[in-house]
């Protein structure tokens, strides 16, 4: 029971709950979680932006489970949901969050597309880290972050019979919290305060062995 409470504390901190606004572009960051692609397609079809960019090559997890890039797989999901191919751009070389942002920024600039506000779509527990990275690496745009709309129990349930296990996801969450603390010093993200309760939960999860994705 303690584990569930600790993971919930991390989840509540890492999720930012931004309100969606009309934007110039939706950027969907690649990962193993195809629900992220569906969320990006949903908000495009709801009319929040006229353009959607899928970003992602092969990541640490997906290089072992897929034979196509994250961006290509996500774009196919979006097109199957009704997103027109003419409204999609693909960036399929990046392998981490920083590259997602920088490579999409280059793609947008090279195509001379004017962008002032972006909706970034990622996994729920990646909202805060995504926001921090955008604010550091693409300073001149406004960014709203969003993710699949579900609570922790439902989110983790999706991994009980899939290619990635629930424990793997918790390991990644712990690693992401560590990066929120470490990465500002490396110039990868802006600084964000981490409440004591959140850091204490992180330390307890590390003690419990959730160390697989630590730097």
UniProtKB/TrEMBL annotation:
Lineage, opening ranks: Bacteria, Bacillati, Bacillota, Clostridia, Eubacteriales
Sequence ranges assigned to domain DUF218 in this UniProt record: 24-143
Annotated source species: Acetivibrio thermocellus (strain ATCC 27405 / DSM 1237 / JCM 9322 / NBRC 103400 / NCIMB 10682 / NRRL B-4536 / VPI 7372)
Coiled coil: none
GO cellular component labels: plasma membrane
Protein name: DUF218 domain-containing protein
